[in-house]
Amino acid sequence: MTGANLLDYNELFCIEPYSLEVSAKEALLAQWLKKLGEHHEKNCGPYARLVKALGADPALPVRLFKSHELRSIPKEDVVKTMTSSGTTGQAVSRIYLDKATSARQSKALAQIVSAFTGKSRLPLLVIDSSAVIKNRAMFSARGAGILGFSFLGRDVTYALDDDMQLNLQAVKEFCERHSDNAIMLFGFTYMIWLYFIQALRERNEQLNINGVLIHGGGWKKLQDQQVSNDSFKQIVHETTGITRIHNYYGMVEQTGSIYMECECGHLHVSELSDIQIVNPLTLEINNNVEKSSLAGNRGLIRCTSLLPTSYPGHILLTEDVGEILGVDDCPCGRKGKYFAVYGRLEGAEVRGCSDTHERR
Amino acid sequence: MTNLQKYNDAFIQSFSISEADLGSELVYQSIDNWDSVGHMQLIAAIEDAFDIMLDTDDIIDFSSYTIGIDILKKYDVEL
Question: Are A207 and A239 in contact (CB under 8 A)?
């Protein structure tokens, strides 16, 4: 018997996405975090020592998953180990999943994304190479992201060949097969920009796609090229005709409970997650989310996910700078917190899915 | 070909296994080839064989040979 058995995830997944106002959400979080904390404290020695030293519900720095093997399940129950893709010389995070946590992550992703794309599985064009998932022993954040989205689509087709070159014929055939329906496109922001949009522009190709594009993985390399979210949207639209474009914020340490960007350009917290802003100097949580005091409230993003029971990653301190923009009052109609991410804290290491992809 | 044969073939082709490997012991992650990549191949094979489209939740819940038979009933596929 472990504490995880006391957590009724079916109940959690029954909540309509983005339906809870912040007071109801806070009550839900308090109840769940107590049980999750007890579970991890009981089943993960290093986590129990952290609680002893730091008090209840410590936010684990994401780096801790690089230096330490953090598991809340016996080794033999691990079915999948996810790693963040690091460039040479960087240590990688290791996230240990059992069957239950892994399935829960897939369910969460489906629930969150379908709140934006609809329930039916759309034809899916992956803006990446199928080579990423061919090496099953090396399961990277990129591969995991692609597979996670594959569950949501059908006729899954890859836009890039094994050498990351645009397979224009495959893309055109895919569009023709589904000319009557909306399609979904998924990829990592930098890959889409470099290997899809730039490749189309170089060939003076203009597509006319009726669909929704979902992308994530970080903006670091695009910021270096002075490409903002707005200009990304604009150019993707001009090149492909796509009007519905949603960025998302997420991390391999909390796979599944991603934060989707709404039609108003705000990232939204779902029922399965939470964010708080932490002062990077004092490490105090900024609880002030009143509209009037937004200015100067930037800080490190502290992410909560209710999904993980196989590793103690339910509360993490990221190295990303963000800001809560409002609560329950986004013009898109979704309840809960919404926020913006401004990139990595100065001096933090470069990491992330597409960030660390080296151009060949 | 009967529905059961089609169902079995989807497993045999997707995972490169033999008829003897089929049964209640065959569950997600019980063999190397039934990992998340193999899972998508299996789902695609089953959808093609019966000309159906599973809901995302059913794809996630499709965690064993036996459970799969129950899930297909929802799509009017009797094995």
Answer: yes
**Which ipTM value was assigned to this complex?**
0.84
Q: Say which of A80, A102, A151 has its CB closest to residue B59.
A: A151
pLDDT above 90 for A247: yes
Q: How far apart (Å, rounded) are the C-alpha atoms in residues A325 and A60?
A: 24
pLDDT grade, residue A161 (50/70/90)? very high
**Domain spanning A105-249: which CATH class is it, in words?**
alpha beta
Q: Using the beta-carbon criterion (under 8 Å), do A121 and B37 form an inter-chain contact? A: no
> Using the beta-carbon criterion (under 8 Å), do A154 and B47 form an inter-chain contact?
yes
Closest CB from A99, A133, A152 relative to B37: A133
Do the chains contact at B36 and A110, CB–CB below 8 Å?
Answer: no
Q: Of the candidates A102, A107, A136, which has its C-beta nearest B37's C-beta?
A: A136
User: A259-317, pLDDT tens digit by residue?
Assistant: 999 999 999 999 999 999 998 888 888 776 554 444 458 899 999 999 999 999 999 99
Rounded to whole angstroms, the Cα distance separating A124 from A126 reads 6
Does residue A290 or residue A79 have the better pLDDT?
A: A79
Question: Cα separation of B40 and B56, whole Å?
Answer: 11
Instruction: Spell out which chain B residues touch chain A, with contact meaning CB-CB distance below 8 angstroms.
Output: 28-29, 35-37, 40, 44, 47, 53, 55-57, 59-61, 63
> End-to-end distance of chain B based on CA atoms, in angstroms?
12
* pTM, 2 dp: 0.90
Note whether B63 contacts A152, CB cutoff 8 Å: no
Q: Give the separation between CA B9 and CA B11, rounded to whole angstroms.
A: 5
* CB of B23 closer than 8 Å to CB of B32: no
Best of B32, B33, B37 to mutate (most A CBs within 10 Å, chain A):
B37
Quick one: pLDDT at residue A196?
A: 97
Residue A136 at interface with chain B, using a CB cutoff of 8 Å: yes
Q: Which residue has the tokens 């016996």?
A: A74
Q: CA-CA distance, A28 to A272, in Å (whole number)?
A: 10
**Domain residue ranges in chain A:** 105-249
CA distance A324 to A23: 16
